[in-house]
Amino acid sequence: MDKQVKESLTVSPFFIFFLIHGTQTGVGMLSFQNEIIKNAEQDAWVSVLLVGFSFHLIIWMIYFLLKRSTKGDIFSLHQQLFGNWFGSILNIFLYVYMILITSSVIRSYVETLHVWAFPYIEIWELSLIVLLATTYIVFGGFRVVTGICFWGVVIPSLLLFTLYYLFPYAQWDNLKPYLNHSWNDYFNSSKNIIYMYLGVGFLLIYFPFIKDNVNSKKWAHISQFYTTFIYFILTVTSLVFFSLGQLEHITWPTLNFSKIIYLPFIERFEFVYIFTWLFVILPPCCVALWSGTRILRKTINLKAKYSLWISSSIIYLVVINFKSQIEVETLNRVVSLAGSIFLFCYIPVLFIWLNIYNILFKRKRYKH
Amino acid sequence: MKLKVKNMVLFFNKHNKKKLTNKSKPIKIVFEQAKKSSDFHQYSPFDDSDRLLISYYKSMVDVEKVNRLLLPSIQKHIGKTTNLDDIKNYIPFDDLHIVKDGSDVQNKLMQGYAMIQLNELYTQFLAVNIENNGLGIRKNNDTENEFTVVGPKVGFIENMDVNIHLLRNKISISDLVIEEVIIGSMSKTKVAIAYLDGITNPQNIQTVRQRLKDIDLDVVFDNSHIDQILSDNSNTIFPTFISTERIDKAVFSLVQGQIAVLSNGSPYVITGPATLMNFFITPEDYYFPWIVGSFFRVIRYFSVIFSIFATPLYVAILTFHYEVIPEVLLGPLINSRANVPFPPVLEVIFMELTIELLREAGARLPTKVGQTLGIVGGIVIGQATVEAALTSNILLIIVALSALASFTTPNYTMSNAIRVLRFPFIVTAALWGGLGIAIGMVFLFGHLLRLKSFGTPYLVPLFPFRRKNFRDSFIRSSFDYTTARSKFLRPLKMRRYTPKRDREDINNE
Predict the structure, then answer these.
(1) Do A14 and B465 lie within an 8 Å CB cutoff?
(2) What is the interface pTM, i.e. ipTM, of the complex?
């Protein structure tokens, strides 16, 4: 039971669904199509599924690690395995990662806003209000953050129905020929889409805030499956709606295909998409900022209030310093790489190390 | 152990305090103070005043009772009277106390008791309750503020005893418990908590008890005064408890396992813990067939959304995103706005404030004048502003509709909150268009997620998610399905009733 914080602070395991799915979906959903078709081309949906299923393994490892940590989160695991000093250094790395995630999500969203809706409003102004909203939510604590994850899944889900408008225009032949690529191609495309699933990593930090967390695995897997399913649908929709040549040159395919939707009172539906997308990007922003705050608080014993403001200020400084579209893409690439290394290299290494450590440690204990 | 010591210290403090007040208020001083007021009467019904002395505030007692019942019975039996207990036997009143303490005497006098003492020197008093609590208070309330076409039109009035009577009329079991406390250093208002023993969660009851105990006020003007102090978060525009003057609504809350707080002198009863959804329920939803009831309820939710977002959307679209308007709609919009010299936000704020003015003026004026004002304001001013090209026709329609929509909310406090809410949205929409509205929504959700009512989350059953509570939230399901109490109230018994109905369908053939 000590893997859990005070009961009044926890949320029920059911909300893992919203926490994971909410943090996985983000700005990437608007533009991931042109990244994944680079190698696998019309078979890109295979890569989406491959990565999606590989994350079930990651979730399994994360639960394995967390069950064996003393306090149910990665800081305690770090300190347990590497001692206080080296553990703290690892935590700081994690903190930087969290800050980068929030910055990249906010900055990419602001970029979208700037290009599509507000060419005359400055970047610093747009990022400031989005960041302030994020900070306000995080101030409410984990339960409020979870609430926003809930709304951030429910409200944008309404947009899924609008995909219906695209079906009359679908060219199903675009998907042919089926499965004519090498494993290498699938693998290379998969690398480009890992960043769409990174939200799972936050589980390492908020795990103690889940009620009955040891038995909450079910929801994590359901959520991962649902995310894979949504991405699969989006990928297929984009592939049948655009030709490969078009997809290569469109920066925001999701927004582009939303243009086709027409209602008698709304001419350009992509505006609805763009502004509703604030609810899609908030869960990853809030959870990452909350996690960063918690890391800072746990590692250097800072008051939560100050560590939140410090984190927000750092994020703001990072965000306004990336000025052009190309710089933003660089930032995204760095985050994507860091996330891939974190989940696909560091977690398995930690997993193996924990196993070795347990064997060694147990033997030592028997000797004494 | 620590607790015990603390309790003992508290006990002693209380004791000392009482002693102090005793010393400072001898009976002589109490009466001297009272005699300064012209409505205080002290006299003996007999020639020799040594035998018996009656004192009371004439304004607080029922003079009829004194003259018809109290005096005749005393005069008749005075021969046999040797001590106060003898009077107790023949006096035709039931609320009798023997009082010795000076401050008790004072309090009882203020509550409308008559003090009978046998000899001026004796320090014992018989307090007889002959209060006249119905004086100057309306006898019945037709619930005109929360009117429904179907259903009883009996409301609470300013007298708490009558209100409790009305509650007990509907809930005729002894499980309905009423606990009374006195609040207000000057008003000494009787405040009562009502709940169903064995159903309402004891933890919630304890919270209410504790919060009422902690209240320190001079005068309790109304129950809504207590409502605000009891509230978990005072920095919010949303009401955290339901206040109602309808008996059926209060009883429904009690039966669900909520707690009601009544106070003397207020026709409103507050019930809690409440959730956002509770504020959009009217008793009529339950008096109509469930499909009709649900339909009206859904309309109410839509009207709230419309009322909050209609004008901000107008501002956002006309300021930033005119591309969104379809070609066919663009023509009429341009025509009506062609001569308007202001930016959309000023136009909207001007119009919204006009509506607010009309409403406020209508509320302050006497009813008959108010109606005239509505016509003058609504038709004349509206028509004139459009003709003078101060606003567009389309905006006038939107503003009027959203005002109309905001009045569909059954709870007056909630409807006010919704009216206030649209102004921040108009401002953010003017600054950042659609993003501003989305940001406003984020702040709104962030705020609602934090709000609590007696420690219960405000957004139940949406968050925390309670699947079964949806049976009676967005829609009002058939009575066959609303058999359980709401889980978020953590009632001790979940089941309310068991429906039995034989359906003649394929299952029973």
Answers:
(1) yes
(2) 0.93
